[in-house]
Amino acid sequence: MKYKDPKLPVEVRVMDLLQRMTLEEKIGQMTQIERVNATQKVMKKYFIGSVVSGGGSAPAKHASPNQWVQMTNKIQRASLATRLGIPMIYGIDALHGHNNVYKATIFPHNVALGVTRDPNLVKRIGAATALEVRATGIPYTFAPCIAVCRDPRWGRCYESYSEDNKIVQMMTEIIPGLQGDVPPNLKGTPYVAGKYA
After folding, report:
1. Is the pLDDT of residue 185 over 80?
2. Residue ranges of the alpha helices (H) in 37-172?
3. What's the CA gap between 118 and 170, in Å, rounded?
4. Distance of CA 43 to CAs 12, 49, 137, 182, Å?
5. Hey, how many other C-beta atoms are within 10 angstroms of the C-beta on 80?
6. Best CA proximity match to 139, nearest among 175, 92, 82
7. CB contact set of 23 (below 8 Å; sequence gap of 6+)
8. Which among 45, 41, 42 has a CA at the least distance from the CA of 33?
9. An example of a Gene Ontology BP annotation on this entry (predicted)?
10. How far apart (Å, rounded) are the C-alpha atoms in residues 115 and 130?
């Protein structure tokens, strides 16, 4: 199958995969569900493309990083067992550290970090968060929130670094912290949270 051949151009692989997919598979791939609903049966039956652990969503009370890895691997195995073997994407709310994980490092929310006006600090926080997220087998976070909150009635103002767009822009240094610094030569360098493979 062309879509599984890494030597072929991405465009060729994508077109081949899309032509093979049923409407149900396409809908499933555009669907994200909460972790509590991501059973092996659901992943296989509905071809789910993405799973999220929102605030407070953990595999068990006081779950260890190993339990998180086992959970994400189990969900991934179900996705890979579908007709086309498309892997799911797992994401987690890690807006102020890996806050869903028991004994993980918790940092102040963005609104408090914005007050520091210290881009180097948020970059280090991003790196620490990435390390802890990857230790649980999760490849990406729903962070950071790079919003400029000017209306305190918005329920997520605490996720904004400031109502001042210049401060918010300074604090985007968390992104290279989460992803790792861009290498001088990008060719052949996969980009993953906090580490280059």
Report:
1. no
2. 40-46, 65-80, 110-116, 119-134, 165-170
3. 8
4. 26, 8, 18, 34
5. 14
6. 92
7. none
8. 42
9. glucan catabolic process
10. 22
Structure tokens at 143: 């962070």
Over the stretch 13-45, which tens digit does the pLDDT of each residue have? Answer: 999 999 999 999 999 999 999 999 999 999 999
Residues 65-113: pLDDT tens digits? 999 999 999 999 999 999 999 999 999 999 999 999 999 999 999 999 9
The yes-or-no verdict on residue 136 having pLDDT over 80 is: yes
DSSP one-letter string for 56-81: T--SSTT--HHHHHHHHHHHHHHHHT
CA nearest neighbour of 113 among 173, 178, 152, 171: 171
> Which has the closest alpha carbon to 118: 131, 105, 108, 106?
108
Secondary structure letter of residue 173 according to DSSP: G
Q: How many residues are there in the chain?
A: 197
What are the phi and psi torsion angles at 180 (to 5°)? 95, 150
Give ∠ CA 160-165-170 in degrees, rounded to 5. Answer: 80
Query: Would you list the domain boundaries of the chain?
Result: 1-92, 108-135+142-192
CB 109 within 8 A of CB 159: yes
